[in-house]
Write a sequence for this structure.
């Protein structure tokens, strides 16, 4: 029935092995008759090979087509048990026992699982029931013996008198009769009782049969209508013509031989075609996996084409359906593809779910469709958390959950999930962690995560472009601008041809920001930025970056308009609201700055930047006591500990009664700390302020050394160049040359303005 030989020459039942022709025949039989009972040996074969997904899909289809067969549920329980999904296995076994209350193997499995879960008393009860149902269940007895129990079934009766010898039915019929009674599965290697006649290959069982083990008499087996086959027709013809004429017999033999030969040819052709189809599927699977793992626009597009090709060959192939639906969500939600693509992905997803498929990839696909399709993020989180109970170390599930948490603004939970994904080597997790760090204004940490992404794949476009963005957000120094420009140039030279339109637009935006930072191209860059913002009116990140650039140019009112758009589009981001607070602070609206900063405290409980801005607001109001209180709070957070020393130094220098000694001690802590965490501009500011204190104390060597350090830390911070130029002796030619070079740098950086501009203009004329 299943297209494989289940009975060998010795009359013993045989299961198909996991390779060679037997498995191919099983797959072919199931593919051509999906509603038959062929699912049982095929699911068993997949399970023995450890191919759990295929085993589960086949078994669920079989249970749906034959809900009355306990064997299907037993195999499904084994699939779950082998994957350590114990609760699901228990549920299947309980459903089985509702159908067959005395199913010994179900009791045995429940007993062993219960003991494994630490529920020994319950497990012992189940094992005893298994022995009661089948006194010859040596495996259940052994399990009981392991926990110190030697159990004899209650009310065990002596062996019944042997039944009168009758002609034994064929082995297949005997075994089928056993199945018709209680569907018990036992050792297939034992011979069926009374099977002395040669096995009848035409009547072999439809489930993986085993000899009956219970001692009581069995009721007569139900007779099932049986489809006539070629061999049956042949027997009927033989019986109707017990003594045929020689010529008729020859004709009948010839006709039958021709029919059998034709059937054999058809079978060979079908098998050959099935093999070719599977070979084609395997080729696309391998190619799709390679492209899928690149986590790039082009890679996803190519992988989707491979999976679509598989679905045309096999519309229920589990990996193709789940990955295709995952890809469509990513392409629409992260690469800006047309929303219609999600409809195709939804169709694949529904097919997979209807077929009973269950995988981490499919769950992640469902989550992303909910996330990017406007579904409830709370429901998406519940779905992923349920799946993670069975697969807590899944990199795919954890990465997807982390991205959902980012969308919700739950930064702590997002980092925890994404770190687990990164620990499993998920490239998307590194990009997600970079996004997390940007939202918390941790630019050094963000750069680290994007660098890890590029180390995993040096052509990973999301990591490369976001690393360029981080450089621009990090500071206005030429060092950061140059670094960003190099990354964008690398994108243009090597990756732009395979990038999505959304990625190309992102790169053009970054190039426009870089132009704005260079005085010669500022006008062109400003026009380009305005055009981009007009086209990308709902891109919150673009408005945020432009607001920061306008604030650095002291165009505070324009900056406020841009940041309000960004916050309106996405109010879950603490970095947007902190920027709004900083702009209000620059405008002198200390109350508004303080209210925005305090709002962020509930959004980023691990960060101190909101406390820093509250302190800045009090500092602007000259409430130095309050300012010092909030700056001291900043010392409790790793992201603001170094900056707090600089802020406290400012308080000691600005309060009515200056304390330059305390200011000096705070600045000496601030300079190395700020440089370590990558705060170049602030480290240069601290160095410059410390140099002023050294100058007042006539500590000339320390003064010169710290100014040189300031210029080296941030070559775009002008004051150290002007101060140093004014303190160089102009009596020698070398001194005048050095002073002129310093003044040129200062004037270039300030555009001829600033407190040292007049002195530098005088020095240049010497």
């Amino acid at each position: 029935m299943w297209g494989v030989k289940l009975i060998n020459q010795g009359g013993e039942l045989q299961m198909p092995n996991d390779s060679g022709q037997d498995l191919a025949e099983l797959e072919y039989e199931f593919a051509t008759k999906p509603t038959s009972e062929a699912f049982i040996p095929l699911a068993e074969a997949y399970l023995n090979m450890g191919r759990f997904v295929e085993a589960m899909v086949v078994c669920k289809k079989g249970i749906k087509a034959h809900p009355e067969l306990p064997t299907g549920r037993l195999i499904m329980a084994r699939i779950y048990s082998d994957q350590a999904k114990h609760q699901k296995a228990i549920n299947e076994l309980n459903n089985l026992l509702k159908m067959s209350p005395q199913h010994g193997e179900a009791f045995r499995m429940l007993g062993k699982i219960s003991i494994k879960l630490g529920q020994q008393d319950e497990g012992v009860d189940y094992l005893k029931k298994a022995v009661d149902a089948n006194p010859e269940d040596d495996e259940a007895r052994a399990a009981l013996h392991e926990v110190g129990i030697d159990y004899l079934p209650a009310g065990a009766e002596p062996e019944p008198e042997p039944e009168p010898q009758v002609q034994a039915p064929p082995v297949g019929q005997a075994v089928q009769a056993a199945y018709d009674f209680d569907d018990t599965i036992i050792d297939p290697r034992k011979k069926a009782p009374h099977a002395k006649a040669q096995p009848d290959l035409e009547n072999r069982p439809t489930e993986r049969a085993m000899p009956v083990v219970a001692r009581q008499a069995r009721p007569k087996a139900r007779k099932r209508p049986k489809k006539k086959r070629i061999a049956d027709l042949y027997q009927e013809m033989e019986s109707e013509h017990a003594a045929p004429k020689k010529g008729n017999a020859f004709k009948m033999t010839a006709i039958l031989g021709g029919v059998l030969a034709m059937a054999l040819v058809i079978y060979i052709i079908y098998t050959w075609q099935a093999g070719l189809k599977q070979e084609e599927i395997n080729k696309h699977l391998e190619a799709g996996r390679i492209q899928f793992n690149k986590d790039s626009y082009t890679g996803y597009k190519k992988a989707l084409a491979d999976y679509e090709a598989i679905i045309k060959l096999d519309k229920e192939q589990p990996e193709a359906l789940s990955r295709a639906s995952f890809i469509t969500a990513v392409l629409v939600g992260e690469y800006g593809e047309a929303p219609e693509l999600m409809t195709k992905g939804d169709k694949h997803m529904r097919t997979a779910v209807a077929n009973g498929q269950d995988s981490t990839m499919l769950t992640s696909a469902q989550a992303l469709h909910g996330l990017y399709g406007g579904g409830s993020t709370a429901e998406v989180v519940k779905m992923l958390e349920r799946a993670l109970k069975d697969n807590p170390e899944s990199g795919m599930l954890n990465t997807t959950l982390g991205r959902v948490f980012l969308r919700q603004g739950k930064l702590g939970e997002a980092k925890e999930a994404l770190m687990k994904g990164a620990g499993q080597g998920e490239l998307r997790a590194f990009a997600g962690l970079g996004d997390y760090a940007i939202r918390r204004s941790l630019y050094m940490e963000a750069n680290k995560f994007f660098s890890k992404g590029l180390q995993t794949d040096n052509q990973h476009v999301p990591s490369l472009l976001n690393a360029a963005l981080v450089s621009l957000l990090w500071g206005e120094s030429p060092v950061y601008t140059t670094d960003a420009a190099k990354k964008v140039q690398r994108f243009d030279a090597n990756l732009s041809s395979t990038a999505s339109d959304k990625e190309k637009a992102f790169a053009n935006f970054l190039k426009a920001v870089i132009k704005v930072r260079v005085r010669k191209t500022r006008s062109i860059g400003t026009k380009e930025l305005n055009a981009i913002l007009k086209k990308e009116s709902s891109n919150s990140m673009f408005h945020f970056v432009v607001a920061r650039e306008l604030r650095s140019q002291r165009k505070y009112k324009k900056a406020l308009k841009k940041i309000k758009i960004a916050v309106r589009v996405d109010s879950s981001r603490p970095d947007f609201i902190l920027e709004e607070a900083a702009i209000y602070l620059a405008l002198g609206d200390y109350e508004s700055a303080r209210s925005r900063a305090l709002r962020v405290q509930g959004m980023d409980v691990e960060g101190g930047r909101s406390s820093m801005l509250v302190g800045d607001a009090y500092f602007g109001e000259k409430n130095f006591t309050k300012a010092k209180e909030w700056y001291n709070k900043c010392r409790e957070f790793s992201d603001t500990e170094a900056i707090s020393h600089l802020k406290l130094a400012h308080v000691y220098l600005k309060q009515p009664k200056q304390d330059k000694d305390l200011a000096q001690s705070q600045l000496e802590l601030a300079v190395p700390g700020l440089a370590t965490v990558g705060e170049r501009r602030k480290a240069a500011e601290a160095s410059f302020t410390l140099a002023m204190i050294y100058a007042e104390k006539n500590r000339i060597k320390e003064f010169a050394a710290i100014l040189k350090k300031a210029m080296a830390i941030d070559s775009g911070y002008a004051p150290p160049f002007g101060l140093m130029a004014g303190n160089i002796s102009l009596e020698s030619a070398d001194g005048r040359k050095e002073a002129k070079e310093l003044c040129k740098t200062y004037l270039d950086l300030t555009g001829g303005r600033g407190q040292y501009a007049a002195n530098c203009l005088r020095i240049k004329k010497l």
